[in-house]
Automatic annotation (TrEMBL):
<dbReference type="InterPro" id="IPR006549">
    <property type="entry name" value="HAD-SF_hydro_IIIA"/>
</dbReference>
<dbReference type="InterPro" id="IPR023214">
    <property type="entry name" value="HAD_sf"/>
</dbReference>
<dbReference type="InterPro" id="IPR036412">
    <property type="entry name" value="HAD-like_sf"/>
</dbReference>
<keyword id="KW-0119">Carbohydrate metabolism</keyword>
<feature type="binding site">
    <location>
        <position position="98"/>
    </location>
    <ligand>
        <name>Zn(2+)</name>
    </ligand>
</feature>
<dbReference type="InterPro" id="IPR013954">
    <property type="entry name" value="PNK3P"/>
</dbReference>
<keyword id="KW-0963">Cytoplasm</keyword>
<dbReference type="Pfam" id="PF08645">
    <property type="entry name" value="PNK3P"/>
</dbReference>
<dbReference type="InterPro" id="IPR006543">
    <property type="entry name" value="Histidinol-phos"/>
</dbReference>
<comment type="subunit">
    <text>Monomer.</text>
</comment>
<keyword id="KW-0378">Hydrolase</keyword>
<feature type="binding site">
    <location>
        <position position="7"/>
    </location>
    <ligand>
        <name>Mg(2+)</name>
    </ligand>
</feature>
<dbReference type="GO" id="GO:0016791">
    <property type="term" value="F:phosphatase activity"/>
</dbReference>
<keyword id="KW-0479">Metal-binding</keyword>
<feature type="binding site">
    <location>
        <position position="92"/>
    </location>
    <ligand>
        <name>Zn(2+)</name>
    </ligand>
</feature>
<feature type="binding site">
    <location>
        <position position="100"/>
    </location>
    <ligand>
        <name>Zn(2+)</name>
    </ligand>
</feature>
<keyword id="KW-0862">Zinc</keyword>
């Protein structure tokens, strides 16, 4: 199976300064998120979300707050008729040295164990920060950098999420 590994914050929904997240009650989707995910599903991509949530470990938000937002995130997409294969997140502190915080490959490796038929050659990572591109580089995968500049040879820089549809 081919997979679109999508960063969440700043890629599918709006991101905020770390200290503002505790005031956020609703995920705010970008205008082209639903249409883009829809089209990816139509083209037989499974959607896996991989998100660094050091906000939890570092105390910016509680686990309950994360769970509430994650539930609303999935409900919104379910209502839009988009099925998400899975969501992985890293709750650890940035200084913790865990193997899952992007650009480390722990979350993708878990996905590969859970879904052994993932074809990494046909899959890609999309994200709005350099850690997403570095993750792709560490996995030897294609990536799309959303308003992030990178010289990774397998990366394509895009300005809007829906721009990646031209390439996949
Ligand atoms: Mg992001
Ligand atoms: Zn982690």
């Amino acid at each position: 199976m081919k997979v679109a590994f999508c960063d969440r914050d700043g890629t599918l929904i709006k991101d905020y300064p770390d200290e503002d997240w505790r005031f956020i009650e609703e995920p705010e989707f970008f205008e082209d998120t639903v249409a883009t995910l829809h089209e990816l599903r139509k083209r037989d991509y499974e959607i896996i979300v991989i998100s660094n949530q050091y906000l939890i470990g570092e105390g910016y938000i509680t686990q309950e707050h994360y769970d509430m937002l994650a539930k609303k995130f999935l409900e919104y997409l379910t209502n839009a008729n988009i099925s998400i294969l899975n969501v992985y997140y890293c709750p650890h502190r940035r200084e913790e040295g865990c193997s899952c915080i992007k650009p480390n490959t722990g979350m993708a490796e878990r996905a590969l164990v859970e879904y052994p038929t993932i074809d990494m050659e046909k899959s890609f990572v999309v994200g709005n920060t350099s850690v997403d591109i570095e993750l792709a580089r560490n996995l030897g995968m294609k990536s799309f950098g959303l308003e992030v500049v990178s010289d990774y040879c397998q990366n394509t820089n895009i300005k809007r999420l829906n721009a990646l549809l031209k390439y996949v």
